[in-house]
Structure formats: C-alpha cells, structure tokens
Write the structure tokens for this entry.
Amino acid sequence: MNITVIGQGYVGLVTAACFAEWGHQVTGIDANAERISALQAGHVPFHEPGLDELVAGNAGSGRLHFSSDTSDAIREADVAFIAVGTHDGNGGWQTATILGCLGDVVPQLPDDAVLVIRSTLPPEFVHQVGGVVETLRAQSGRPALVVLVNPEFTREGAAIRDFTEPERIVFGVLNDPDGRGVARLRQLYAPADAPVLVLPAVDAVLAKLGANLFLATKISFVNELAALCDAFGATIDNVVASMAYDSRIGGGFLHAGVGFGGSCLPHQVTMTVRTAAMAGVPAPLLAAVDLINQGRRAELVARLVDQLDEPIAGARIALLGLTFKPQTDDLRDAPSLAIARILIGRGAEVYAYDPMESARALAASLVPDIAVRPSAEAALVGADAAVLVTEWPEFRQLDWPQLRTMMRGRIVFDGRNALDPADVTGAGLRYLAFGRGLREASVSMPADGDAPASALILIEGGGPIQPIPIAASRTTADEARTRTSA
Ligand code: UGA
C-alpha cells in the first residue's frame, strides 16, 4: 500500500518507519523543512532506540521517503495518517495545527483513500472532524472520504516494540459506510498479532485518553502511598510487591518517585481537567492526580533542604538525569527542569549530567543557570548532595565509595527509588528516597531497577531478605511486560 504520514515527530516517524518495515511504500511529511532535510540525510532528529536503524534500512531499500511537499504523496495515498501535535505546550489543547493539516490534505486525497487521524484528539473536537472533512471535500467538488481515528499507545523509549507488538489496536469510525476503511486498516496491521477493537470515534478517543489518565492515576496513587510508607516506617517496594500479586491490581506503573513527566501524561491530565470543567463535569480525582504529581518536585527539594547540613543558598547540588525518563532525549515537562529551577531560585548551584548529549545542551539553553557536565563524576565533584532524577541504567553502576571521596557532602537523594540503598549507605553516604523510610538500608532492587521483578520480603526482626519471583505469582505475562518497561 502507499501510505503517507503527516507529522514526523515521535509518533509520526515511528508510524512511518514501522509501516515501511512491514513492506509498504511510505512517505513521511512534515511542515518543518529542516526536519525533513535532516531525515533525508539520514539523521533522526530525536533519540528512540532502534529508530535510526529502522529509518536507515527502509530509506536504503526505497520503501521510506521524506518530503515537505504534501502534494505528490497525498495524491497517491491509499491511506493517509495525520500525526501532528494537539497540545499547546501550556496544559491546554490546540487544534489549529490539525485543522491546517486537514485543509491541506483533504481536498487532494484520492476518492478511494482512507484518512486516519493518529494524533491524540480532544474528545469534543472529534465530533467536529467529520463535518470539517465533509465541508472541505464538498468545497473542492469531491465525494465524501472514509475517515477513521487510530490512537497510538506507544511509549517513548519502547515505541518500536509497542508499535510492532501492541497489546491492542483501536480503530474509531468517523465515516466508513461500507467498512472499506476498517478493512484496509486491518490489512495494514495484519503483521501485529493483537486484538483489534472497532469503536465509534469518540469512544476510541476516550479509550486512548482513559489509558493515559489511569496510568497517571496509578503513579500519583503510588506516590501518595510512598508518603504513607515514609510516615509509618514502611518500605514501598515491599508494599507494592505484595499488592502486585493481586491480579486485580497488577504491578505495572506503581513505581514511586519524583512523578511523571513527558509530553503525554502531564498534559493529558491537565487538559482533561480543563475540558471536563468546560463540559460542566467535575474531575476531582484527576485534579488531585495533577496536584500530587506537581507536588513531588517541590517536596523533593523541601526534603533535601531539610537534610542538608548547610543552607541551600550556596550549596552545590548534582542532578543525575535530565530527561523525563530513560531511553529518550525528551525534556518536555521533565521533573529535572522544575527541580533545577526551584533549587536555583533558592540560591543553589546546580550541576547536571544526563547520558544524552542533546538533552544536556537543551537543558543548558532552557535553564541557563544549570552547569551541565559531561559525566556523572564531573557533576558530583564538590557536590553537597546528589539527586537522581532519571533512572538511567548507568547510575546503578556508580562507584559510590569513590564518589564519596569526590563529593563535599554526604546526601544522595534517589528521586526514582532506583539505587540499591546498601550501595550508597555502605559508602558512608546518607540515602534518601520516596517511601523507603525507616527500612531504607535493608531494601535492594533488581539489577534492571524497574518496578519490582521480585518481592522483597523482610523477615520479622530485620533478618535477611528473601526475594520471591513475581513470575510465580498470579500476575499476567502482560503485566510483567508493562512492569519491566515502566
Ligand atoms: C505514555 C503512555 O505510557 C503511552 O502508552 C502513550 O502512547 C504515550 O504516553 C502517548 O500518549 O503518546 P510516555 O509519555 O512515552 O508514554 O511515557 P511513560 O512510559 O508513560 O512515562 C511517563 C512518565 O511516568 C515518566 O516520567 C516516567 O518516569 C513516569 N513513571 C512511569 C513513574 O513515575 N512511575 C511509573 O511507575 C511509571
């Protein structure tokens, strides 16, 4: 099939490259000519594991092309996907980009083409889309188009696997009177062995939003639970590991820490609260999810200030990790930037390291008072405290006894509960984390440090820890998969 994907950001480029990998002829289009030139020269403009190879391989075999001109590719498209951004970068929705895109594309599409909207849509907007497309076709003297929505459930850092091995595929029907659109999309997704749900368009839109809102709720829930653990001297790792045995709960997305960031979860929570208010529907749970999440960043700083031996003004704080999660170079709504701004506002010197060079450079331009350093060690020299903000695997290999001799102070605040507390305390440093209160020195995490792969049971009286593999529990394989990539 001839496929056109409009919008070559994180979602659109992955979509284009994966369909090319499945053997289709794909053209990726973007209004940003610089981005298209980079792609034509073989440079993927952001970090996504495996994407460089996928783009290079499919461009090399002639199945994947890039263009900033919509016309030719659109006129030959069997299926056209729209994957442009819909948030305004300020906690609200914006539909100007997608409306502009529809204005360009819809009049030119062949009469038997299928138009598919892959962008995350505001629920109220989906009701307008059908009318907008119908009007644009009528104005250009063309017959009605088949229009579907096809929300994506891909995580940055695992996007290719999420695309090629999805847990479900959702088609939302806006206009498909003879079922031709659904049949064509089924054919397109045939290589993915996953259940397909064909829903009314508005249900598909809310199915997408609902998934992200629930994930965000789980994270704020576990973070509130971690605060209770701190208050009562319990260890969140043990509490969650026990909860995860209950198949009604599962263990995924229950990793306590400094909270969720990125371009999806934070915005979709705040956008939904706003949209709900406009629709006259109170959404107090989601408002609390946002409040708890934002509060984690300030709370980390407050606890750090409380534990420092010297005033925060003039203290040197080393941030380990800048990106909103590992395996990406994305800094959108990254907790690190908020934490750095609060610290700098209170007079601290902030040194930071992230394995992604591009993220270091961008952070330095977004928060000019951050001093970025080329290694964790360089950021930690002379530091009064280390704060781990992103759980990059390399931070678990840090040589804390060696670092102890280079640091000025003794505090290590593990903002992602990713380190083995014994490694830190064994080096004579003070370990702080979320929900690892009184038992912090006796908890250990699995080597990959994701949400618990084993339950860590403390024998009464503070005896040795007996790991119990969660695989032996009633949690499903799917939950385990979610857990390892959280
Ligand atoms: C999210 C969803 O997970 C995807 O399914 C969805 O397709 C995507 O949004 C989207 O709407 O496009 P993403 O934003 O890439 O994906 O990142 P997540 O893996 O969801 O992580 C979001 C944030 O939550 C990160 O800052 C992460 O560190 C944090 N997190 C995650 C926790 O604090 N605790 C957890 O247990 C899991």
